[in-house]
Amino acid sequence: MDPKHGSSGGRAMGAFLDKPKTEKHNSHGEGNGLHYGLSAMQGWRVEMEDAHTAVLGLPAPGMTDWSFFAVYDGHAGSRVANYCSKHLLEHIIGASLVAKATQGSQAGSDSSTSDPSAPVPHTVEAVKAGIRTGFLRIDEHMRSFSDLRNGMDRSGSTAVGILLSPEHFFFINCGDSRAVLYRNSKVCFSTLDHKPCNPRERERIQNAGGSVMIQRVNGSLAVSRALGDYDYKCVDGKGPTEQLVSPEPEVFEVIRAPEQDQFVILACDGIWDVMSNEELCDYVKSRLEVSDDLERVCNEVVDTCLHKGSRDNMSVVLVSLPNAPKVSEEAVRKDAELNKYLELKVEEMLSRAGEEGFPDLVTVMRNLSTNSGMPPLPPGGGLASKRSVIEAVYSRLNPYREEDAPSCFIWVTVPLTLGPHPSGTLCSKKDGKAVLVTDKVDGHGIHPELACGSDTDASTNDPPYSKPTLNNILTAIGKLDEDMNTRFNALYSKLHQVQTSLTDHKTRIAKLEGCATDHETRITDLKKQCAEMMEVNKSTKHKLNDPESRSRHSNIRISGLPEKVEKGNLTQFITELLLQLLGTNNFPNGLKVDRAHHIGQQSSAAHPRSMIVKVRHFPERKKILKIASLQTPVSYNGAQISVGYLT
């Protein structure tokens, strides 16, 4: 499987070769107070998809003392990585110059005393804005390429780089390649990998309608930011930095410290998959103390990563700064002593080959790894960094190795027949059997004749020996690969069904949430209307209560009058009664009674009902109550009555 893409492809063995391609592309240079070296190896991958850029002195006004280095890790093809390695810098420079010009015009308008002919310096923010704009522009520009537009090429690429000015480092990252700064003999800075499972990246992916499954975008792409990959950049209504995969780089500015800065490493994930930041920096430091050949150091890095198990393309750029580690005579001596020790140990192991036969290289490496008397190995590299030394001795002393044959040895036990055999060499004898080792191959794998003598031994009745061949092994691996692909395809199909179901549920939930929001809005409106109506009701009630209260202020209560004593108009009777009882002289202007009425229903003559009397003028009411209180008790026709407040 493609490490970046989840689909298989290539030969019968998937995206990997039968044996790694170890040829390296190298380059080096010096200028602007620094040296650089780089190395790139295809490794086990079917195609070399990495690319790189190294420029000392940028082709732009005022930037001849600047430098730029970058590594591009392509996936699903090398088209995007190769184009970016040739043209990304020009897009960055163009955008930076525009940002600088804009800044210069603003500065000119703000200051009338400045010299208009003086060059405008590149500010940190202008450079960072130019880098970001350059990435977005080249990504949009490549979208117009016919093969990328019509889907014939679906490639993409990560990008990690560093732009060095005399005062600053500008670290640039888009994807999961990485850059580190080594300062004061420790890792001072490292870029951050853009993986779909990172919370901020996951949020953007989900906001664009995607998902993160098995740590991949929609279960397929293993990086969340990259150039190219246009299948993941077609969500309507979303800007270029809001898509499932974003081309926006993160740019980090670090002020240079010339007396402390030692070196910068840029590398793709084929390096970082098998070495941590600290391991790689410690290993590079130890190699720089042995050799000042930066190409050689980079070659040792990729070889070590290959031997540590990296299955990807590998590219590394090493930028050596003025305070980088220098070659040390002691380090050179110790490294030579270590190499000599390993050579002697390998010779010793091979010279002891006896009944068990000639050991293979894996066995030799395993035995060396358990050697307690081993001198200190290169930090970060370990025994894997010395495999080339060990392999050279092994190849020199291996009597069964042919120059044109692969390093593939098979030990088989066959019935003993004395005498040489054309397909191998008799190595030992044990329990009446011969241990035969062969490395001869035909066009399809191991030589078909592996047994000495006849296929069977009449004296032992052993069954015929089954002849394994490399071709059989490759066929079995091919079938296993096909079976795994079938299983993965079935798994992806089920995952797609789950994703479709989740999308459907997500849509339904969104609709329900919309309905709930609508209902909440309506409920809020109703609550608001109810609150307004309550305020209106309260105001109306107050308005109603106020006249009633005012009206009741003029009322008096008369109790004890017999029922039906009025014999006519009750209001007129009460007016005359009050004047009679309280004295006409107390009311020279007369007494005005608006109305009078009984309270409740009549129950019996023995318990007459009270009366409510409304006096027109409030002062007259007060006078009535005052006089009545002074004349207590008040009686009428022998019946004691009371005149009082209405409660």
Automatic annotation (TrEMBL):
Residues 18-28 have a biased composition (Basic and acidic residues). It is a lipid-anchor. It is found in: Cytoplasm, Cytosol; Membrane. Residues 1-32 are annotated as: Disordered. It comes from Scophthalmus maximus. Residues 35-321 form the PPM-type phosphatase domain. SMART domains: PP2Cc. Keywords: Cytoplasm, Hydrolase, Isopeptide bond, Lipoprotein, Magnesium, Manganese, Membrane, Metal-binding, Myristate, Phosphoprotein, Protein phosphatase, Ubl conjugation. Its EC number is 3.1.3.16. This is Protein phosphatase 1B.
